[in-house]
């Protein structure tokens, strides 16, 4: 019995509902991440400015082998989403001590020190245009070492796109590459010739044309690092086939960077299971609770436990249960909401079945702010329900003769192992066909109203193996509800 002097910790349900409705957890994560990446001199004003933005600021990395079309896609993407296009050669042109020092390393054909390289990237991304409009890094990073260096600096992209194409195609592209000296746009004599004759007239062959062997070495260098880069960015990486018209490549890139982001913010399942008698609500609730650590709450079992308690509430409901009368909704709701408010339900989530049983109870549950974020209706015909329920029997004896209701059998699905066991099976009066038909009639009288009350509910065919049903449920449990991403 619970110690009457110890009150269970109660967390108001409004906290979780409000936080999830307004995506507070994700917002806090985003704010902290932006502070770590941008490192503004005035953090408070920076956060205020961030919250005033109308849309998400893109942070995109576009990588791929030579001649895969990175420059073309990056420029077109930045024009479309109004982000800042950044290449390492552009960074070296900045009028800063860091850029001039880096250029000196390059002039001497020396590798730029890692810390210096990181500071260069940080300096560029911390400028107001990048903070305000976001950025697309083209061909940055080139190696896993550089990628890890960015991570250490807190530079974390939302989307990483890697373009891929067969080496033979890339070598062919490289040999036909032409560059517009005015705009820096890249064209190709076969795959992408400019529509403007004026532009076509001024195109130039790259000053250091890549011979086949030089291109092959560059490709080999990329392939050496590609696998490690994929591992580093696996959680936000999209690989896109670049061996197709550039308009199709761009369409796929744009579609991906506009895809709602996966949020790592806490997600507390609050699940309702509906279904006629025999549909397997108890079995599915048990499987869900066991796998995901969710609190399994059967309203009927909750009332029985409360009745066994010597509390005032237990004394109130005991007469109803003993006479097999329906416990008033007001009493059921008091017991249920007290249970749902405990720390385990608040932090781990819950799966509830056998309540609500009608629209009035659903409205009362909603008004109490215990609002489910997943609702399932397990569907089956009355004929199947009758077959499942009426043929159940329980063996009241263990092998040693001790009495304990443990062995459940079914005339079709799990027959008794011997005539002796069959002869001593006990059948629950509630499982008689007459009583079951009444319960089915009661369920269907409220089903349409409950389905209308929960329009986002998912319907599962319950006339399947329990584990098949569970897989259908699970596939709709593990995914977060999508967020809207707007550029």
Description of the structure:
- With 487 residues, the protein is an alpha/beta fold.
- It is built from 23 helices and 14 strands.
- It has helices at 13-21, 24-38, 43-51, 70-81, 88-92, 97-107, 114-125, 128-133, 144-152, 167-175, 197-202, 212-232, 246-257, 281-292, 299-308, 312-322, 329-340, 343-348, 359-367, 382-390, 419-423, 433-453, 466-475, and strands at 59-63, 84-86, 135-138, 159-164, 177-179, 186-188, 237-241, 270-274, 295-298, 350-353, 374-379, 392-397, 403-410, 458-461.
- The strands form four sheets. A five-stranded parallel beta sheet has the order 2-3-1-4-7. Strands 9-10-8-11-14 form a five-stranded parallel beta sheet. A two-stranded antiparallel ribbon has the order 5-6.
- Strand 12 (392-397) and strand 13 form a beta hairpin.
- The longest helix is centred in the middle third of the chain and has 21 residues, at 212-232.
- It is elongated and about 95 Å long.
Unreliable segments of 5+ consecutive residues? 1-6, 399-405, 481-486
Helical segment count:
23
Tell me, briefly, the overall form.
elongated
Strand fraction band? 5-15%
Spatial extent as radius of gyration:
32 Å
The total strand number stands at: 14
List the helices and strands and how they pair.
Blueprint lengths: L12 H9 L2 H15 L4 H9 L7 E5 L6 H12 L2 E3 L1 H5 L4 H11 L6 H12 L2 H6 L1 E4 L5 H9 L6 E6 L2 H9 L1 E3 L6 E3 L8 H6 L9 H21 L4 E5 L4 H12 L12 E5 L6 H12 L2 E4 H10 L3 H11 L6 H12 L2 H6 L1 E4 L5 H9 L6 E6 L2 H9 L1 E6 L5 E8 L8 H5 L9 H21 L4 E4 L4 H10 L12
Parallel strand pairs: 1-3, 1-4, 2-3, 4-7, 8-10, 8-11, 9-10, 11-14
Antiparallel strand pairs: 5-6, 12-13
Helix pairs in contact: 4-13, 10-12, 14-23, 15-16, 20-22
């Amino acid at each position: 019995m619970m110690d009457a002097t110890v009150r269970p910790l109660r967390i108001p349900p409004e906290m979780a509902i409000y936080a999830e409705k307004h995506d507070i957890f994700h917002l806090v994560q985003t704010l902290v991440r932006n502070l770590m990446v941008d490192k503004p001199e005035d953090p408070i004003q920076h956060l205020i400015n961030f919250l005033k933005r109308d849309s998400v600021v893109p942070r995109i990395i576009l990588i791929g082998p030579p001649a895969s079309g990175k420059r073309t896609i990056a420029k077109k993407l930045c024009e479309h989403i109004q982000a800042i296009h950044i290449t390492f050669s552009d960074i070296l042109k900045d009028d800063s001590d860091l850029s001039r020092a880096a250029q000196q390393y390059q002039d001497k054909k020396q590798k730029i020190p890692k810390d210096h390289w990181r500071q260069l990237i940080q300096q560029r991304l911390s400028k107001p245009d990048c903070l305000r409009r976001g950025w697309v890094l083209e061909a940055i990073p080139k190696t896993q070492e550089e990628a890890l260096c960015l991570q250490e600096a807190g530079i974390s992209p939302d989307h990483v796109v890697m373009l891929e194409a067969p080496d033979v195609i890339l070598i062919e592209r490289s040999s036909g590459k032409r560059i517009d000296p005015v705009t820096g746009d890249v064209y190709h004599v076969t795959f992408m010739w400019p529509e403007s004759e004026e532009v076509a007239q001024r195109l130039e062959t790259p000053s250091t044309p890549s011979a086949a062997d030089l291109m092959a070495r560059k490709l080999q260098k990329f392939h050496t690092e590609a696998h490690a880069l994929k591992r580093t960015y696996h959680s936000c990486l999209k690989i896109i086939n670049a061996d197709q018209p550039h308009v199709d490549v761009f369409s796929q890139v744009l579609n991906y960077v506009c895809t709602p982001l996966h949020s790592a913010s806490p997600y507390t399942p609050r699940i309702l299971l509906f279904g006629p008698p025999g549909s397997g609500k108890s079995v599915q609730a048990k499987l869900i609770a066991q796998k995901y650590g969710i609190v399994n709450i059967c309203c009927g079992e909750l009332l029985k436990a409360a009745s066994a308690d010597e509390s005032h509430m237990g004394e109130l409901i005991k007469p109803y249960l003993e006479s097999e009368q329906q416990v008033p909704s007001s009493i059921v709701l008091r017991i249920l909401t007290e249970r749902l408010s405990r720390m385990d339900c608040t932090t781990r989530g819950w799966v509830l079945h056998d309540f609500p049983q009608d629209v009035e109870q659903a409205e009362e549950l909603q008004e109490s702010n215990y609002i489910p974020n997943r609702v399932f209706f397990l569907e089956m015909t009355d004929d199947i329900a009758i077959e499942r329920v009426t043929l159940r029997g329980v063996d009241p004896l263990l092998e040693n003769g001790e009495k304990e209701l443990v062995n459940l059998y079914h005339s079709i699905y799990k027959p008794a192992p011997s005539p002796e066991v069959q002869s001593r099976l006990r059948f629950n009066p509630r499982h008689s066909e007459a009583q079951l038909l009444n319960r089915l009639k009661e369920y269907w009288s409220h089903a349409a109203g409950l389905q209308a009350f929960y329009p986002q509910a998912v319907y599962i065919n319950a006339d399947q193996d329990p584990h098949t049903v569970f897989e259908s449920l699970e596939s709709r449990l593990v995914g977060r509800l999508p967020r809207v991403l707007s550029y």
